[in-house]
């Protein structure tokens, strides 16, 4: 703590001094990636980096979860081989580049540490407080949260300039998007180097300039979800036709042009006039509708319970996931051609 005299004459605080000493690593110096959390997301992130030649260590508190993670990586690799995106020998290299540990001290030589643990603020804060004491001075820190405050997660981190949100989208071995979300003190250098890193692993990075709940993707996704629920709840259309309308209407267009360019091509004046009368008709619900609550209460949770809006009993669950991934792989192949 500064004395009152030091504060009065404007001497820098201890945190200010620490801030100026932060060394920002260059993307070319990144060799080892640490991934905390061996669930679906952590395993997918590990697979993505290892497939691009990075050494990866995955940690979790449970050995059983680590064994499951290794199996998930095998599944991801197998799907890529089946699609002709990866060769069997490349899959073996990926497996060889990933190690597993229950000791976070194995992050001590990692150049980038990505946290994908349980979505509970206090647990994430404690993780980073402990990890910063172990990590290299110039290592980048990233949280894969899909909705929690980045500022909140890094509250106990001293050198916040190297901390960032890094939200991969599931399934991360297929979907190109990664959202880089700045905390209040994240340095521009950190953002720029990690944008370069995302390009290195063939991901499309977007920068969320300030810490806003839901970032970009989930804000858009849940705006659509809210309106979809409203349409069904009001009896305007069935859930089957809502999904069909999105798939073969706006959803068919959005992989090619986003919502704002759609407006450009349709005419901003036209979109203004439509907005002027339609915005008043759209849902502005602040809480989930009773319909969704009743479905939860009835145990209709979607794929995990074999019943949601759609029926996933028998082989339908596996079929739905396989169909989704097959179509996503087709989209991935198309997008790679477009981006070249």
Written description of the protein model:
The chain is an alpha/beta fold. Helices cover 49% and strands 11% of the residues. It is built from 15 helices and 8 strands. It has helices spanning 4-8, 14-21, 40-51, 63-82, 88-97, 121-134, 150-153, 188-200, 217-233, 239-248, 250-253, 259-266, 268-278, 290-297, 316-339, and strands at residues 32-36, 55-59, 98-101, 112-115, 140-143, 163-168, 177-182, 204-208. An 8-stranded mixed beta sheet has the order 3-2-1-4-5-6-7-8. Helix 3 crosses helix 4 (63-82) and helix 4 packs antiparallel against helix 5. The longest helix has 24 residues, at 316-339. Mean pLDDT is 92; it is low at 1-21.
Structural class, from helix and strand content? alpha/beta
Helix share of residues? Answer: 40-55%
Question: How far apart are the termini?
Answer: 53 Å
> What is the C-alpha radius of gyration, as a whole number of Å?
22 Å
Number of strands: 8
Strand content: 5-15%
Instruction: Report the oligomer.
Output: single chain
Order of helices and strands: HHEHEHHEEHEHEEHEHHHHHHH
Biggest sheet: strand arrangement: 3-2-1-4-5-6-7-8
How confident is the prediction overall: mean pLDDT? 92
The unreliable regions are 1-21
Number of helices: 15
Largest sheet: 8 strands, mixed
Shape: globular
